Amino acid sequence: MAKLIMGYWDCPVCGKKEITGDVMNCPACGRARGDVIFYMKGGEGPREADQRTDLEYLSQEKAAQIGDDPDWYCSFCNSLNNARASFCSNCGATKAASEANYFDIERKKKEADAARQAAAQAAAAPARPAPKASRRPLLILLAVIIAVAGFLIYRNGTTTRGDLQVTEAGWSRAVQIEENRQKTGSGWSVPEGAEVTGQKQEIYTYNQVFSHYENRRVTRYERVLDHYEEYYEYVNKGNGTFEEVPRQRPVYVDKPVETTVREPQYISVPQYETKYYYTYWQWEPSRVAEASGSDRSPAWPEFTLAENEREGQRTERYTFTVTDAKGQSSSYAMTEDVWNQYPVGSGLSISAKRNGTDVWIVDGSGNKVSQLTPIR
């Protein structure tokens, strides 16, 4: 038989605490128990079997006196009555005429509270305007963005210098000379044009080949039921008491199980293929023939090719230095046709971004004529 435990309630009028659940009127102010919340000392959560020392169990006589049913509410005067009372203590109406008990009223209260909370949330849905103080971080961020944008606009802006004169000019040309050199190599195939000097069977790779099975003892774990442990849950009876309900839950353990498994064993077997050794000829950079000057007649360097040499890539570069009225100079590289248009002593205007990029020679109207590459 389940055991009953004494519950408690607090008077909502005078605030007296821990009034025992069998008392129908507050001993301090006389207020009828009515609509209250019953509780257990130490809480109502589940307890292990050996953790029940703080509970106040009722004797069989006391439990029979209180009864097993919840308190009932009078449908005529809304008074709360003891479960064993047949007539309302306030108006005399019969229990049979009652339509609600303690739990019915609690359920209706929760539903009403939920409805009020939903209505309050719906009414508060329109967001209040943020106070002026909260706009300060946004204004600071906006100011930073404007400052950064202004800096980028300024940095990418264009400046034009029109008091420039070419003070130096130069050119350089180079020819890469390549030499045909004999190289040695090896591999599983012969490149086109190579001459084989030898070949032999060598290990190309290893293949894993099944050999046999071996038995091996291994320990595996199986989750098995060990025993059941008892714990208790406490159910509010709605009459000032709680019922202790015994429960059981399974306890599992990992049990080691020895078993034999057959594991395949493999051996590494070499796979042989023909490996070739060969020589081949390859053109490689050997030397550079260069010529340079500051005159207006750029020329390619003169050179003589050996029997095993050939001419490779040709490169050329044309530069001039411009100086402004303050004596400040800048150097640029350009194509040959642009270089030919501006000998030493020529005047010109140059536009560029403030960060030093996108440099152009411009005409008197500011139109871009020829692009230049700054020399750092």
In words, what does this structure look like?
The protein is mostly beta strands and 376 residues long. Among the domains are: 3-121, no CATH class; 164-175 and 292-305 and 312-374, no CATH class. The protein has four helices and 15 strands. A six-stranded antiparallel barrel has the order 8-11-12-15-14-13. A hairpin with a 5-residue loop joins strand 13 (347-353) and strand 14 (359-362). The longest helix is centred in the N-terminal third of the chain and has 22 residues, at 102-123.
From the alpha-carbon coordinates, what is the Rg to the nearest angstrom?
Answer: 51 Å
Number of helices: 4
Instruction: Quote the average pLDDT.
Output: 88
Helix/strand structural class: mainly beta
Fraction in helix: 10-25%
**What is the CA–CA distance across the termini?**
98 Å
Q: Which residues form runs of ≥5 with pLDDT under 50?
A: none
Strand order of the largest sheet: 8-11-12-15-14-13
Helices and strands, in order, run as EEEEHEEEHHEEEEEHEEE
- Report the strand count: 15
Profile the largest sheet. Answer: 6 strands, antiparallel, barrel
Strand content: over 45%
The dominant shape is: elongated
